[in-house]
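Summary for the funding panel

The consortium committed to producing paired sequence-structure records for every protein in the target list. Below we show the first two records in order, beginning with the earlier of the two.
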Amino acid sequence: MRSLIILVLSFILAHPFIMAQKGSEGKDQETARIEIKAGNDQESYRAIACGSHGALIFFKSVEIADNQRVKWYFSFYDLNLKQLWIKSLPVLNDLDFRFKTFSGDTLILVFVYKGKIKSEDQPLEIIRIALNTGNFIPNLTRVPANSEPVFFNTLGRNAFLALNHKTGQAAVEILDLKSNHSKGFLVDPQAQSAFSWFGTDSATGNLKAVVSKAISKKETGHWYQVFDTTGKVLNSVSISTINGDREFSGFKAISNQKGEELVIGTYRLKNGGSGQKNKPLNESTGIFTSLLQQGNQKNLNFINFLQLKSINSLLSAKDLIDLKKKALKKNKNIAEYSVDLNVLQDEPFEQDGRIIQVSEVYFPQYHVENFTDFDFYGRPYTNSYSTFDGYRFTGAIITAYDAMGMLLWDNSLEINELISPELSPKVVVKVMGDKLLLAYCAAGKIGSKIIHDSETSGKLEFSMLESKYPDDKLVSETKSGLQSWYDDFYLCHGFQEIKNVALQSNNRRFVFYLTKVKFEE
């Protein structure tokens, strides 16, 4: 590897600049970029930023450990991306990585069943990795057949899995990581139910969740509930839209400074304010907040996306004009209409007493492929079918609330050229005093901007990621990701196809890369 790459772009005004640490002139050092040869972007390479301990890359190999298990390789790097250790661990063939969490200097990975046989209890493996020593502690357990792990948390020596069952019986499985003994409970044996959100309370050791239950064939109710580890319900609050023309479509929850729970989620208009019939159920009209106070639902607020000041940057002028004309023509409020956005809500966080929520906007993208076939008489005809490309992320809505759930301000981040095969958060947020840095990685560049409440310090700016050699040209990039690492440093990763005609050999390569970048104001 050559000397440390440098990624530099000074942003005007208060924009951050992004760089990799640079070595002394003329000296060879370890680069701030790692490249691993890959065949295609379907390979299972993943990267995890592990705070001040370092960074981990792991993948499923083709090496067979025995007739039931395959080897996964784990490679750990220090803060300068110098490899500290590499180890392999046999994992059951039909398991794949799903969740991660940290406990001190230990990284916890969860591998869930992805096989085809659903009628039997399904294996699940929790792997604890002591990052400093590279020691592995696997816990193999089983979960009920036809159940889907949807949330995972740890607290002390216990791991908690929230399961949604095919038959409509939500359940919690609790695994003692030291004894490997497990226990569990059904959320409500009398009703069909599913977890919409799940968490743990480190202060009390209790579990908290938003549980959705079937009231009738056409109606679903939602409750914020607190359980102890035996399944006893300690608190249950009904979360209602009050108004029958709205329904909830997503939930998050966070405690305010008084210890009260603030539920933040998305909702949609039942009658389809956009005029679209049979619209997809994952589309939303806006955001709602509801403060739960002394066992009751208080301060229920609905905020239509069209009422946000920042929506102009995420929608075309034509769309906004058409909706406003429609509302004016029918003498209705703009809040009675909807742009029907697909929204992925990140976990809310607190900043100086305010609750900040990032909602990422996306849509499923397809392309049409044509092929020629022949009928019974040998005459050619054209067949077409749609192929799923992934989820295209187009922007993020940033909203801030007071402790009561009242909207204080909103802002937005435009996202370009980002397509992902999975729905997971793409935007990282860094608190910089009373400002927020928003950033994402896609197509070999990092897009970022700084906001101060509803104000923006300049436009969205882009900084190119440098590659390994000076004449490298990026052909394509897929599965891009950006993670907070430590201090002002971040990890950017993904698959890249790179061309370099200046090289005598290997002038076209496909790699999984990991790059260390720094944000400074």
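The next record, for a separate protein in the list, is shown here:
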Amino acid sequence: MKQGLSLRVSQHLALTPQLQQSIRLLQLSTLELGQEVEQMLDENPFLERSDEQAEREEFGLAQADTPVSSGDREQEFAVSNVEHSSTSTSASDNSYEDERTPLTADDGPDWDGDGSTEMAPDDGEWGIEAKARANNLQDDENTDATELARSQESLPSFLHRQALALRLSPEDSAALRFLIESLNDDGYLEESLPELARTLNPADEEALDQLVHHFSVALGLLHSLEPVGVGARNLAECLQLQLRAQLRDCPVEEDIQYELLEVALRICAQPMELLARRDIKRMVQLGVGSDALVREAIACIGRLEPKPGRRFVDVERNIVVPDVLVVPLAANAKNAQMKFRVMLNPEVMPRLRVHDIYANVLRNHRGGKESGGHAALQQRLQEARWFIKNIQQRFDTILRVSTAIVERQKSFFQHGELAMRPLVLREIADELGLHESTISRVTSAKYMATPFGTFELKYFFGSGLGTESGGNASSTAVRALIKQFISAESDKKPLSDNQISEMLKEQGIECARRTVAKYREGLKIAPASLRKAL
């Protein structure tokens, strides 16, 4: 075998730590970004909050409209390809990850920059506009709304408070308390009484029967508490408990109402599939009652509460804070088109800066005895600088994309969702000189406050349906049109999917019946058979 030397030229793309962090910050939501900022403030001593308004970087909004160079665009396309390939190699990388030696200051990520931006010696310039988040919990006058929402009484505590008014033996009181704690969020008792008794590990069958007896007594007491229907084992029993409570409160002289409630009880004793399908003909054949009484009884059942514990559920209330604000501006002339101002929400922008004192101390003590420690601190300082830059670049990109969306969907901001036009990620990407993957990251979990409400940026993108004129209609506008048709329909004769499809064709929109059914289900609208009034 002959040995020799050869020269080979090849291109290799490496994602620098700065670029990786920029990509990761871009796809984070507002809440996740806040958590990332808090973590970085805890880990990096050179990073601190700033109450002063700092100057923006040279690559910020002032450079937002600068054309993207061909080299940068090729790099972005290459980054997208690298990300797709990295998912296939992540499994193999985990196999030898534990064998790696700990990183030292020299081996860690290089935060000295990638050569694209020259670092300034003055650390006082680093920062980003935003207000520092106030601690609402320390101010009684500015109590957090979410904390007030979570302070509502739960279903178990509400039932326990009622049980205190009952004079029960210690055994029955303990059994009732056990059943209350076994309810689910809807107020149902999912497990049977013997199954609940077995969870207490009785000594023998006699002890098991005694536990079941105490649970049976406690279940009757539970059914007498508010809200009516709590402690039911299934939907039929829940409805029957509420109907029996109405029967007890119904005056004797009201024979018609009493008969109606009895028919409703007989309906609930039948399989629930008949009630779900509102199969009135089958119910009349089973001898439940006359056609008119069955119809009225079904309407009476529809006014009951299928989930007694619904109003006690402590639902996590996620308050959406918009990243972008769109404010309409008055037109100068009568026939002039309305203009809109697009701006970032300062409430979601963290105001950060590099700690001046620490940075100056590190600058004045270069070349000390502990050169390794100095290099590690220098790396931390550079990491803080790039973190601030990447956050600023994230918000600049969000603002650029949002501005382009507002320009493309200007009709929506004037007339609402019926005027929405088709829009795909490629259009915005080509206009701004970015990759589609970048637009997808920007529009995910980012929200825009508009005159018609707050929407996710992805809401403004949608496919198009063909029209008779040869143009396209947005799928969002078609959904809004379907909702408008259904809201104006007759309760006696609701519109079928086929009729809605024909009405859309009259408007010049080609939409098949299956597409109408898909959009209707997406809007969570019941079919025509269930929308029909009895």
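Regarding this second record: Confidence is low (pLDDT under 50) at residues 54-66, 84-108, 111-143. Residues 371-408 form the longest helix (38 residues).
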